[in-house]
Amino acid sequence: MKKSMSNPEELQPRNRLDAGIIWAGNAISVLFLFTVLISFYEVLMRYVFNAPTIWVHETASFIGGTLFVLGGAYGLATDKHVRVVLIYDHVSERTKQYLNVFHHIMGLLFTVLLSFAAWTMTEGAWYAPWGEMRLETSGSAWDPAYPALLKALIFGTLCLMSVQFVLHLIQEIHGLVKKNK
Fold first, then answer.
1. For the chain, how big is the Rg over CA atoms in Å?
2. In Å, how far from its chain's centre is CA 161?
3. Ranges for the Tripartite ATP-independent periplasmic transporters DctQ component domain (predicted)?
4. In principle, which of 21, 31, 54, 113 could form an S-S bond with 142, CB 3.0–4.6 Å?
């Protein structure tokens, strides 16, 4: 069981999936810098050269949305999700384990239900009502397929988080069973 914030064990991933998510999250974090650079480019082109772009705003929004969505899986992998520490920090280790089990069950239920809703949203963004594949676009002058791509990413990330919750729940239950022996 994890001890305190200063404990190096706290920074260790729980499983290979979490390790992969942490690695990927750290790797794609460079996209924040890319977003700043293209936003700077837009400001420069618009206000210095009077030649605004049609692609920067939507691209920066898409990258920001992508990083925000993937941040859920990263937060779960690094155990940096929202927790009511007013209660959690003042209970015994055993009670913390039971609270963790409850958290993982509720998180799993939440992500499974959201995955269903996200699938419905994604299906509508990828297929026309008559069944033909067509990606939903932004409707702007540039008209990229970012809305369809982001909806699919939301669905995929929620499915990934569901698997994470299952793996974390198994680990917590295994820890409780081990302590009861």
1. 21
2. 8
3. 36-171
4. 54
121: which residues sit within 8 A by CB, 6+ positions away? 151, 154, 155
> Please, how many CA atoms are within 13 Å of residue 11, restricted to the half-sphere of its CB?
5
Distance between CA 47 and CA 41 in Å, rounded? 10
Among 168, 71, 161, 66, CA closest to 113: 161
Report residues of the chain scoring pLDDT below 70. Answer: 1-11, 181
For 89, which DSSP code?
T
Task: Quote the Cα angle for 67-126-147, to 5°.
Answer: 35
pLDDT digits (tens, 9 = 90+) for 16-49: 999 999 999 999 999 999 999 999 999 999 999 9
Instruction: Read off the pTM.
Output: 0.87
Round to whole Å and give the CA distance between 123 and 129.
Answer: 10
Q: pLDDT at position 10, please?
A: 57
- Given a contact cutoff of 8 angstroms between Cβ atoms, the answer to whether 56 and 42 are in contact is yes
**Tell me, what's the pLDDT at 3?**
40
Phi, psi of 110, rounded to the nearest 5 degrees:
-60, -50
